[in-house]
User: What shape does this take?
Amino acid sequence: MSDCLFCRIASGELPAELVYEDDDVLAFRDIHPKAPTHVLLIPRRHVPTLADAEDPALLALLMQRVQYVADEVLGLAAGYRVVINVREGGGQEVFHLHIHILGGKKMPF
Ligand code: DGP
Assistant: This one.
């Protein structure tokens, strides 16, 4: 979708600090980090929200990539937090499904 910010990052039209990419997903640093490490992992395919993600294979793939990026790419061996904001009421601002990976400090409840 040409008007979707994260589609434009996925296509390379807009810059981002990539930490990982493959044929299905990419992960890049959040522009407004809420922790020492704050990365967003997105599917290349445009899916507006988690509630729109009906493909179980996509959901499984995203979680597997979160594991890989957090542990193998970012080295968050001490642990990390995974957050998905869903729709306006859940705090979602960018309507392209994305998973926040936060770490690098003890996360408060
Ligand atoms: P959410 O509230 O869950 O929709 O989170 C959207 C996140 O996206 C927010 O933490 C800030 C981040 N963000 C917004 N615009 C950009 C951008 O242009 N580049 C990057 N890297 N992150 C962005």
